[in-house]
């Protein structure tokens, strides 16, 4: 058992030392702790007596305290201790350079980082979240693990069974260009056909079949090398340099959680450029993100067909190509959970094919949400969505169901009814769904006055209600605190942190969080804005820890009303007997709620040849 | 190869400026130079005060031993020639050759053991001179050097009297006579009595007061005490008080310490001063290091009245120089800002025939 | 090491408090400040006027996504 001597050289500040002592004892180390204000001789004297493996001293670094630390190191060397004992120092204002100047073997600046401390004591390189990392097992947590997906409210089971039966019956003889392209892509991947190189033979035949199903811009891209406006190729030089720039992979990861292994924290990326995305991902990982979500440009959802190659473009969202995804994957930490969305566009099935090939851990599919507003025609997305859920099931990759239609003013009970239909559909097809209720300053609830007194009751009800229906993981999104953020970074970060804290204390499995640039529309998200909210959430996790919020009577009343309203919506959809028609007719959100059926791909559903 | 250490009594006493002065002359003489540091040096701004610092510039052919993270940090073009086993916060220490002139960041071995290994490596590399830059007030590893240059000044204490008193006390350690050859370096503290008997303490260091409890005086007249490790002067004083001295013959007790540098690492100079002034004891050291010269620097960082930043401040330049010179007559003292630069080749004892042509002409 | 601005991953944010009488005046001052700091293409991300002045956050992008990133030159050194 390793022996550690703790010596607070600061006259008063020994709280961190006491905390470290407790943590080290819990971790099974023999520790000796000296009183605060211990001087260098006393510390070395004690060390000569007990021969520790490591001495940890604490002292805030200032002009004259540097000499005290220098003297301590000098004395340790002169007394012959440094042959066997390694020296670490913790305190504010410490840098690696100052540590080198002082002669220490390690420094621990700022907040306590037990992973780094234990790595130093064990004389190994610092690694990630040791609680989750076990040798020989997958480093990535499975959000759906441990959930039975059994219905708890048995009233909804037959209703959902009836609705989903109708959907599956309706789609069974239908197909679309989106589905056919997904099948061609899948075949091209299996046969190693690169559409950019396929000029002759079998490859060309496959590509021609593919291009026949694409929009003219995509055809021009493959046939004439013409790029869409604002799109350019990523240069090889940029990619060559990246590995050198990012050599220290997991070294700096520190979990945002104070305790436990839930929730996982996700951030969204999609700057337009995969190289910039990689930098943002690495920064987010270093500051504690557990997962990342790939966002593609909105036009990607409205064009039939996807491009190929390493491509960047100058507006929000990073183009989905197999090469872009593979490049990003190459730089992801082994523990980072990777979600690729395909929930709303004309390329949903194909995006899943490429995502699975690139190594995605999660997908995002939601038929009702994706077929509203600027999205896809409900009939088309129902056909493509069911096919995509089947793909997710075959790949064994879970998918989440974002409830962001609430943003336009749809009442939560309608959005949640849609989420439940998706859940039931997924379970019938053998997939693993994760509902993603929106934690936000809900426009509908503002109008109804439910959020006048606080932001907790309503949002707590929206999270707690899931486990009244079904034994499922819950992942509030997307991002939490939606509609609360302003361009003020402090306000924005505080809001994200507060919502994250509420969600974490209510036992959710994952959280999607924004950067503090969430409400800034005139430019891309900056790295510092990512750090802002990760820092804020860490602080709030520390503050709340394993304590938290409990539902108030008011929250429980909201929850109970929400429950009954959701069932009413489901009953109405069941009664209508036509899921697609229910969307067109606004049962899951109508024009009064600010919702209109999507138009992209209208009239493109085809009947499959028997 | 000669190894010269450059140490300071505190941060910002002008250690780097002193090394730069030596480098300038040695470069002019086309000496083959290697540079390392037991701390971290060559940064643009001080790591603690944030004030600007002088930077190291090396020439093609020079060698530097520095941590891997520092290799690309300066403007000099480097080629790594050896990677050592020594690990630091900033990565493994490597030996690199300067290919193109430029600034370097130096963070070398910080333990005595690692510096010893490095010196051995340099011996095989055809070097005239290895310059070892110190760190803060740290001195211990410098015992391995063939000579020491000490920098002091207002950064140690803004009062000139205090600086003078401290440096003259410090210099007196380097004047302690060295034990004649033949006395081996023991692993424990040894007491030798008038009757020829001896006993040893269970430790090499006299730093833990429990030593006093575990060892009672023997009741015989003490003649000699050998302390191979570190000793705290106060503890040493208390230990001596319990022993019997030969008051009649007035023969002093001989106290054999490891080295002046080991003495200084523990306790305060004033506490040592009292012991050194005690006529009943006579100090010798097992190993010493020649003090080549002193440099003084009137600069000190003063806490700014506004906020937490530091601002540059200065003690009276001339007064400081004269005061230290008066107190330390046997050792050359320089203020590198005003004085003619020291003749480093001569001070460092480099051979006459290698004397610099460029300077003579 | 090169120029410090080459190492800016994407944007420089400047936060300050400007003494002014109104949000409009604050905005004008903020825009002028960007010019004075040699950041002519900068933007006022956030401005809130209250009491004696305005809390502002200014931003100038050094590297837009898809630009040639100077921090990638020389292997990011």
Strand fraction of chain B equals 25-35%
CATH evolutionary superfamily of chain C: D-lysine 5,6-aminomutase beta subunit KamE, N-terminal domain
Number of domains of chain C: 1
Q: What's the helical proportion of residues of chain C?
A: 10-25%
- Uncertain residue ranges of chain B: none
Radius of gyration of chain C: 15 Å
How many whole angstroms does the radius of gyration of chain B measure? 22 Å
CATH fold type of chain C? Defensin A-like
- How far apart are the termini of chain B? 26 Å
Quick summary of this structure?
The complex is a heterotrimer of chains A (610), B (361) and C (77). Chain A has 610 residues and is α/β, with parallel strands linked by helices.
SSE layout and pairings?
The complex is a heterotrimer of chains A (610), B (361) and C (77).
Chain A: E1 3-8, H1 15-26, E2 30-33, H2 40-50, E3 54-58, H3 65-78, E4 86-91, H4 96-102, E5 106-109, H5 114-121, H6 156-171, E6 174-175, H7 177-190, H8 201-211, H9 216-224, E7 231-233, H10 236-245, E8 264-269, H11 274-286, E9 291-294, H12 298-302, E10 311-313, H13 322-331, E11 337-341, H14 348-358, E12 362-364, H15 367-370, H16 378-395, E13 399-402, H17 412-428, E14 433-436, E15 438-440, H18 443-447, H19 456-464, H20 466-469, E16 477-482, H21 489-505, E17 510-513, H22 527-544, H23 553-576, H24 579-584, E18 606-607
Parallel strand pairs in A: 1-2, 1-3, 3-4, 4-5, 8-9, 8-17, 9-11, 11-12, 12-13, 13-14, 15-16
Antiparallel strand pairs in A: 6-18, 7-10
Helix pairs in contact in A: 2-3, 6-17, 6-23, 7-8, 7-14, 11-13, 11-22, 13-14, 14-16, 17-23, 19-23, 21-22
Chain B: E1 2-8, H1 15-28, E2 33-37, E3 56-58, E4 63-67, E5 77-88, E6 91-100, E7 102-104, H2 112-123, E8 129-133, E9 147-153, H3 160-174, E10 190-193, E11 198-200, H4 210-214, E12 222-227, H5 233-242, E13 253-257, H6 260-265, H7 269-277, E14 281-285, E15 291-297, E16 299-303, E17 310-314, H8 317-327, E18 333-334, H9 344-347, H10 357-360
Parallel strand pairs in B: 1-8, 1-9, 2-4, 2-8, 9-15, 12-13, 13-14, 15-18
Antiparallel strand pairs in B: 3-7, 4-6, 5-6, 10-11, 10-12, 16-17
Chain C: E1 11-19, H1 23-36, E2 43-50, E3 53-61
Antiparallel strand pairs in C: 1-3, 2-3
